[in-house]
Specification:
Layout: H1 16-31, H2 37-71, H3 79-98
Helix pairs in contact: 1-2, 2-3
């Protein structure tokens, strides 16, 4: 999966198995609708809440990682490290705006 802006690979925000598990949660809620409509909607609500929590945690961790990458750089030193950090921030912002 490429980001498209500079050809670099975009790092998934959630692990593949976690995405599968969360998707399965939603599918299970949908499949229960006919027999238990209210319970299905409640289950879907919990699944979306879980997805949002995981997404928020993943975004916060990504931001901490980015911040660490440039805050540890000597102010007068490595412009290249700062350029890379800015590129990563831009990529993250673009991905968020595409959601």
């Amino acid at each position: 999966m490429t980001d498209g802006t500079d050809g670099t690979k975009a790092v998934p925000l959630l692990a593949h198995d976690e995405r599968d598990r969360l998707g399965l949660q939603v599918q299970q809620a949908v499949s229960r609708f006919v027999d238990q409509p209210r319970a299905a909607v409640e289950e879907a609500d919990h699944a979306v809440e879980d997805i949002l929590d995981r997404f928020t945690d993943a975004m916060a961790q990504r931001r901490r990682t980015l911040r660490t990458s440039w805050q540890s750089v000597d102010e007068a030193a490595d412009t290249e490290q700062l350029r890379l950090a800015l590129r990563d921030y831009r990529e993250l912002a673009e991905r968020l705006l595409r959601l």
